[in-house]
Amino acid sequence: MSELPVLGENAVTLDNGLTIEDKVVGQGAEAGEDTRVTVHYTGWLENGTKFDSSLDRNQPFLFEVGEGKVIKGWDEGVKGMRVGGTRLLVLPPSMAYGAHGASDIIPAYAMLIFEVSLLNVEILPARPKPVRVDSYLAKPSGLQYAVLREGSGRAAKQGNTVAVHYTGWLESGVVFDSSFNRGQPIEFALGTGRVIPGWDEGVAGMRVGERRQLRIPYQLAYGEMGRGPIPPRATLIFDVELMNVR
Questions:
Q1: Do the Cβ atoms of 19 and 90 come closer than 8 Å?
Q2: 142-to-138, 145, 199 alpha-carbon distances in Å
Q3: N or C: less crowded end of the chain, CB within 10 Å?
Q4: What contacts 24+ positions apart, CB below 8 Å, involve 231-237?
Q5: Is the pTM of this model over 0.70?
Q6: What is the per-residue pLDDT across 181-191, written as a single tens digit (0 to 9) for each?
Q7: Contact predicate 92/142, CB 8 Å
């Protein structure tokens, strides 16, 4: 992937101006919305100048498809690829860095050529289904919750050790954590401060098998400062399923 590749007869130009051609068709998992992909890539200017390559760094690149974390041509260009595949992308300026370019490397109005190899696809949890505002129950603390599915098992009380599967989102819909991705529910002693206050309060009273959506104000989450992927003063939304109580 060091020399500028050439489009073949199977190249297709989409309505948005992006041109794609599959050099190798993969057989693995498919990249699309709600996936995180790992790729190796090399990028060239139209004159054949190589400006970037993950191969040179020996470090693959990860991003979430459709989240706007990469240029538009990448978000659109990797959709439909399968693990093991290699695709050639030719990006018009409108799908790349446009009228401004990028630092001293990408000129204004530059057409870019990428060869992208898809190494891995991770399926992300789907965004939460909207819950009607009047479906939420509010507690004096500011915590809101909605019961998505009733449970019939043992009720969780302060001091119990509970096992919970969950997915957490920011209000923007961006997933920041999920026990489902790890295949392992989280266990904690309820009411002992081992989790954020909104969890201690929101899980209490749930029955095994129950699913709730918790809407947790920042005062009951990570506060004024935030933490890691959580911005300051962030309201958090969790879908929580109670798996076990002991």
A1: yes
A2: 6, 10, 13
A3: C
A4: 231/170, 234/170, 234/171, 235/171, 236/168, 236/169, 236/170, 236/198, 237/128, 237/168, 237/169, 237/170, 237/171, 237/213
A5: no
A6: 777 899 999 99
A7: no
Q: Which residue numbers are catalytic?
A: 166, 176-177, 196, 222, 238
**CA proximity to 113, closest of 79, 74, 67:** 74
Say which amino acid occupies 117. Answer: S
Of the candidates 147, 116, 115, which has an alpha carbon nearest to the alpha carbon of residue 131?
A: 147
Asked if residue 186 lies in contact with residue 179, where contact means CB atoms within 8 angstroms, the answer is yes
DSSP letter string, 72-101: HHHHHHTTT-BTT-EEEEEE-GGGTTTTT-
- How far CA 109 is from CA of 42, 45, 96, in Å, comes to 19, 11, 9
CA 88, 106, 5 angle in degrees (round to 5)?
A: 25
pLDDT digits (tens, 9 = 90+) for 63-112: 889 878 899 999 999 999 999 999 999 999 999 999 999 988 999 999 99
Please count the other Cβ atoms lying within 10 Å of the Cβ belonging to residue 106: 20
> Which domains does the chain possess?
12-123 (3.10.50.40), 133-245 (3.10.50.40)
